[in-house]
């Protein structure tokens, strides 16, 4: 199961906004099955987000908004304990924009 801590939240947008986000390449991540197929199945799209959108980026690609918590994996799922998070996605962003 994916680490999630967003309660009842899900990504919702009108069709024209969804079309624009996809056309602009701003949809960063989507809910997928283990084979990598984008899925609306509630087993994989755990909150029913429209078009299985899990994360989007600002038009310039500098801001990422996500639903699931990739830092809450393993033995410490949903527990905020300093030093126990997987922060690679955030560290990669800092490294990229520090160049």
**How many individual β-strands?**
3
Structural category: alpha+beta
| Tally of individual domains | 1
Low-confidence stretches: none
Strand order, main sheet: write it out: 1-2-3
Distance N to C terminus: 35 Å
Main beta-sheet annotation? 3 strands, antiparallel
Shape label: globular
Q: How much helicity do the residues have?
A: 10-25%
Mean pLDDT: 81
Provide a count of the helices: 2
What does the oligomeric state look like here? single chain
Describe the structure.
The protein is of the alpha+beta class. The chain has one domain. Helices cover 20% and strands 12% of the residues. The protein has two helices and three strands. It has helices spanning 15-23, 88-98; strands at residues 27-30, 53-57, 64-66. Strands 1-2-3 form a three-stranded antiparallel beta sheet, with no helix packed on it. A hairpin with a 6-residue loop joins β2 and β3 (64-66). It starts with 14 loop residues before the first helix and ends with a helix.
What topology does this entry show?
Layout: H1 15-23, E1 27-30, E2 53-57, E3 64-66, H2 88-98
Antiparallel strand pairs: 1-2, 2-3
Salient structural properties:
alpha+beta, globular
Short description:
This protein has 99 residues and is of the alpha+beta class. Helices cover 20% and strands 12% of the residues. The longest helix is centred in the last third of the chain and has 11 residues, at 88-98.
